[in-house]
Specification:
Radius of gyration: 26 Å
Number of domains: 2
CATH topology of the largest domain: Rossmann fold
Number of strands: 11
Shape: elongated
Helix content: 25-40%
Number of helices: 16
Distance between the termini: 28 Å
CATH class of the largest domain: Alpha Beta
Largest sheet: 6 strands, parallel
CATH architecture of the largest domain: 3-Layer(aba) Sandwich
Strand order of the largest sheet: 3-2-1-4-5-6
Strand content: 5-15%
Order of helices and strands: EHEHEHEHEHHEHHEEHHHHHEHEEHH
Length: 404
């Protein structure tokens, strides 16, 4: 965690991945992020994975370092408190992150009537307000038909990684900071709407996939575990350990063929075809089947330990295949040896390696990553410090079950 955004107060009304991850990024850079939680928890409060006692490890992971105030948002008094927090005065305030509907009591226009320079970042499914989640966006834009083994034919394969949610969280944090810089220069607030479908559509264009489909008139086929457009695939050693090899750059390709001692065989194929694999990664993809056969032989003859030594010696881009549990046991990147991790005990009662910011600022000291909040843990503190309510007023709200 760093203190680069100290003095910034962000109110977050969100659930699931995209909007909470936006708040997480901001909190890990030192912003005060205050979650508006429902009394008893929102729709993701009990989401899997869970601890043995039933606490959501998912919720803990996405809300580290935030403050939580629990409100009854079904009642006018609870909604009034939420609106007051979003629009509360202060140079670092007036920043709101949400994936709640664009209309309703948290509509930007209603909130901006209370604070004209309010900045709202609203993560959405579709721009027209229609619901969408990562899986439905992926399905709509063709990615499940490019994923999985070639033998599947027309059967789609969903990806386990919520890529659009995660990208949306990072993009939303970037957009909020851009809007804050604009507000400092102009004094003007605004609403930023970030639909997952627009993010996916833009990515299709940015990666050349729209141009590719337009030019070819066909869909990109599946290539299994082969890397599209360059050399890469999974291979199995003599002791049945599976590794992933990749050679995109000329240097990576040279390192690979030297480590496997297949320089002469590759040169012979180059002479036969009248091409150079070193200069054009696309040729390695075009002739991947011939190259795979050459690469596969020395890997299949070597043990994993021997092969790992050779690949590391020559600086080859590769990795073993591991389960998450195996990676935790074997890879120091997922341990406290990596400075982004610290052992932290969370409200679930479970202590585990907890990451702070993935970015490391070389000129700043990294502080200990904080735990996640207990639901409503900061209710009284936020009501007092942000809204200036007295103890009597806060106790009255508790007595009427408007806050918890």
């Amino acid at each position: 965690m760093y203190r680069t955004l100290t003095g910034m107060r962000v109110i977050e009304a969100s659930s699931f991945v995209a909007a909470p991850s936006c708040g997480l990024h901001l909190a890990q850079m030192g912003a005060e992020v205050i979650r508006l939680d429902l009394i008893g928890g929102g729709p993701d409060f009990n989401r899997w994975p869970r601890s043995q006692d039933g606490a959501s490890l998912f919720w803990e992971g996405l809300n580290k370092g935030k403050k939580s105030i629990a409100l009854d948002l079904r009642r006018p008094e609870g909604r009034e408190l939420a609106a007051a927090l979003v629009s509360a005065p202060g140079d670092g305030g007036g920043l709101f992150v949400t994936n709640f509907p664009a209309e309703g009591f948290l509509a930007h226009e209603r909130l901006a009537a209370r604070r004209a320079d309010l900045i709202t970042v609203r993560v959405m499914g579709h721009a027209n307000g229609r619901q969408a989640v990562d899986y439905t966006v992926n399905a709509a834009f063709g990615f499940p038909y490019m994923t999985g083994p070639e033998s599947l034919g027309a059967e789609p394969v969903n990806h386990v990684l919520p890529a659009w949610d995660l990208l949306a969280g990072a993009h939303a944090a970037f957009a909020l900071l851009a809007a804050e810089l604009f507000r400092r220069a102009s004094g003007k607030g605004q609403e930023i709407r970030l639909p997952l479908s627009d993010l996916a559509a833009a990515t299709l264009g940015n990666l050349g996939m729209i141009a590719e489909a337009t030019q070819s008139g066909t869909a990109r086929p599946r290539y299994g575990n082969a890397l599209y457009g360059a050399f890469g695939r999974d291979f199995v050693t003599s002791d049945d350990k599976r590794i992933m090899l990749v050679a995109i750059t000329e240097g990576q390709w040279s390192s690979l063929i030297n480590a496997l001692n297949i320089v002469d065989e590759v040169a012979s194929l180059e002479r036969e075809l009248g091409i150079s694999f070193g200069k054009d990664e696309g040729l390695r993809f075009q002739h991947k089947d011939r190259l795979f056969a050459i690469v596969e032989k020395p890997i299949r003859r070597a043990s994993y330990a021997e092969l790992a030594r050779r690949l590391d010696k020559d600086g080859v881009c590769w990795s073993p295949y591991r389960s998450v549990h195996e990676a935790l046991e074997e890879d120091p990147v997922l341990s406290e040896a990596n400075p982004i991790f610290e052992m932290v005990e969370h409200p679930s009662g479970f202590a585990y390696a907890t990451p702070g910011s993935a970015a490391s600022f070389t000129g700043l000291e990294r502080s200990f990553p904080p735990r996640s909040p207990r639901l409503g843990e900061h209710t009284d503190e936020v009501l007092s410090e942000v809204l200036g309510l007295s103890n009597t007023e806060i106790n009255d709200l508790h007595d009427r079950d408007i806050v918890a």
